[in-house]
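User: Before I run my own analysis I want an independent prediction to cross-check against. Here's the chain; please return only the structure tokens and, at the end, one sentence I can use as a sanity check.
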Amino acid sequence: MSHAYEAELNVALEAVRRAGRLCQAVRRELDPETLEKKDRSPVTIADFGSQALVCQTLSEHFASDPVIAEEDSAELQTQANAPILERVVEHVCSACGSSPSAATVCEWIDRGSAKQHCPRYWTLDPIDGTKGFLRADQYAVALALVINGLPTVAALACPNLPVDPEDEASEVGAIFTAVRGYGAQVHAMSAEAGTPGRPIKVTRTDDATAARFCESVESGHSSHSDSARVAELLGITQPSRRLDSQAKYAVVARGEADIYMRLPTRADYREKIWDHAAGVLVVQEAGGTATDINGKVLEFTHGSELVNNRGVLVTNSSLHSQVLAALRDAGVGGGGNV
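Assistant: Structure tokens:
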């Protein structure tokens, strides 16, 4: 379907597809000894390589657009990290089919160094879910175009999610896209540019007792104890699906779960925009709702943080008011203590 942001969507889709493939290539090189030593250099290589590829792609097509991203190249350029930079450059060269210098790759990474809100900008998390990456579990490359404070175009690559969860033989590696007002789709990461995606929709569940949560694997990212209290108040008995990264948004958007809560673990914590912008739009365009835990609209107008919001609540829309009420009753939402 033709729309005003067709060019932006195509560029975003290609950018995260290239970045996701780079991440897969780095992940294939991991061996048990690396993981046993808790060596994080592979995820560092994938993180910087992913950001370099996405920012380079955006620069080619939308040179005047700022990018608010998670990384910058300062630490990468230290003498101690020279071997890591060398590996980043190798993977970027392989992915883009050219031979940029280390200095050029660092310039691409630093295209993501914008800090301030403006009427039109991109926000990027080059690898959301680093522990999931290391465990060969879920992680994501999350890119969104924000216009006048609203996520408007999103591309969310989930290299370890199946394209079709109902097909046991489905290929692994899915990209979720959305354009405001035009719905959400899932694409195979292996597909060629221009291949159409398949529309996705949230569930229609309106009975909370039949609902299913998904939540973070790491309790440091979201309060599992508060989630358990809310589940009890709602009468939810199904076990939560725990997975890393914005893959949780994708799982809700295509109906594998009904509710995702990101509940603050401390009162002063504010979420980063790159952790949510792409996923929020994908869920909204699949028919779901995303607010903070007090029911406030998420405000992408304050630089890199959601400074006026506490936590995040994502549902299939039908359950949103029920979950907000349970959060208030549990003393989590409605201005209650964390």
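Sanity check: Residues 120 and 147 are 5 Å apart (CA to CA).
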